[in-house]
């Protein structure tokens, strides 16, 4: 699966720990590291999610989930592609809801 994505990163983020990131999110996280002060109170992960337009309250929930060793999946693409991904995940047995 990693080979099919356009890049990956293994990052150690204070307060979030070690995270593996695949796809464009890795580049977005690295891109916000220089401007982290602009996103006061957010980790590099949170700042990158916020810079994508995710509301700050949702970003804070995502950061908290990562700190609790939860999996965070970000689907980025056309609306119909994201809807299809959400549908597939909803129908996949064994995934937490």
| Rg over C-alpha atoms, rounded to the nearest angstrom | 14 Å
Strand line-up of the largest beta sheet: 1-2
Oligomer: single chain
Structural class label? alpha+beta
- SSE string, helices as H and strands as E: EEHHHH
Main beta sheet: 2 strands, antiparallel
Short recap of the structure:
This protein is of the alpha+beta class. It has helices at 24-32, 44-51, 56-67, 79-91; strands at residues 8-13, 17-22. Helix 2 packs antiparallel against helix 3.
Could you explain how this protein is built, in words?
- With about 100 residues, the chain is α+β, with helices and mostly antiparallel strands.
- The chain has one domain (about 1-70).
- Helices cover about 45% and strands about 10% of the residues.
- A two-stranded antiparallel ribbon has the order 1-2.
- The radius of gyration is 14 Å and the shape is globular.
Topology at a glance:
Blueprint: E1 8-13, E2 17-22, H1 24-32, H2 44-51, H3 56-67, H4 79-91
Antiparallel strand pairs: 1-2
List keywords for this structure.
97 residues; alpha+beta; 4 helices; 2 strands; globular
């Amino acid at each position: 699966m990693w080979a099919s994505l356009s890049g990956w990163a293994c990052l150690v983020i204070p307060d979030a720990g070690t995270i593996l990131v695949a796809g464009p999110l890795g580049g977005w996280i690295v891109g916000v590291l220089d401007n982290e002060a602009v996103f006061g109170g957010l980790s590099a992960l949170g700042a990158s999610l916020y810079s994508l337009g995710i509301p700050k309250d949702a970003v804070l929930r995502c950061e908290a989930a990562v700190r609790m060793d939860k999996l965070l999946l970000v689907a980025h693409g056309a609306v119909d592609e994201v809807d299809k991904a959400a549908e597939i995940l909803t129908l996949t047995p064994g995934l937490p809801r």
